[in-house]
Amino acid sequence: MTTRNSKWNISDIPDQTGRTAVVTGANSGLGIATVEALAGAGAHVVLAVRDPRRGEAAAAGVHGSVEVRRLDLADLASVREFAAGWHGGLDLLVNNAGVMNIPESATKDGFEMQFGTNHLGHFALTNLLLPHITDRVVTVSSGAHKMPGSPRIHFDNLDLSGEYAPMKAYSQSKLANLLFTLELQRRLAESGSTVRALAAHPGYAATNLQSHDGSWVRRALMKVGNRFVAQDNKAGALPTLYAAVQDLPGASYVGPDGTGEMRGGPTLVGRSQAASDPVAARRLWTASEELTGVTFPHPAPLTAV
Prior knowledge:
The protein has an eight-stranded mixed sheet, with helices on both faces. The protein is built from nine helices and eight strands. By secondary structure, the chain is α/β, with parallel strands linked by helices. It has helices spanning about 30-40, 50-60, 75-85, 115-130, 165-190, 215-230, 235, 240-245, 280-290; strands at about 20-25, 45-50, 65-70, 90-95, 135-140, 195-200, 255, 265-270. The two termini are about 15 Å apart. Helices cover about 35% and strands about 15% of the residues.
């Protein structure tokens, strides 16, 4: 197996016929690029989206077997409804949806929006769907998990009440994605399951995430960066796809192989010391269970390789 190959692209995706995948936040950006590639390789792909009308419009342009289902990760009732409506096996769950650097706001359950959507919503969704999952869970993180200033999980103030800053909250949520992956893989292995938990980041990819930044200065800079520096969404989705279809060890983290991991072909990449802390990962898991009311179930006994 070659884990560093800048020429790896969607034509290298193995035949996905007979496999089913769920991609969150699938109506635009990295999500729709992920859907197009998986459906193009033969998978049946469910676009899990907050706005079904936008999801249907996006799905209409995809060649392959797709369907749209409503999922609002900022509303745990919606997460539970989505999971309760799932029947049968699920080969692949891609936790792709997210919000980035937005002004301070809260989910329907009262959690800080970035932590609540990017981490807690996906935490609940994964655990609720886990009895159906037969192959792997891929969670999209970000290089922002190791931004200057040493991002950490603020266990004493997860909502950052009184100290909120858009980038601080985003970095915390992306660090949480990696700690979640680490602890999920540990629990899966401990339970005897061969379901794998992996993570990926796109590098610098031009998507609509940047347009919602809470700072007009950063919005302006990102607009320029999106035009002249960033990869497009198809290139940005390659690390996610690589993690979704390649035979990689559990807890692997995939990103671009270029300078600063900003662009390039998918390869295994490193993570910060904070993202590799098993004690913090377990503590975050416990806190997440308490906040969401969702716990780790027994995963499906049958797995696909």
